[in-house]
Amino acid sequence: MKKLYFFILSILLLNSCCKGDNENNGLIVASFLDSFQGYCYGYIPHTACIRKQSEFERIINQDSLRFCTNFKFPEIDFNKNSILINYKEDQAISTFSRHVSVDSLTKEITYLVSVNRLNCRCFDLCQSSNYNIILVPKVDSTFKVIYK
Question: Which of 62, 100, 134, 147 has the fewest C-beta atoms under 10 angstroms from its C-beta?
Answer without folding.
Answer: 62
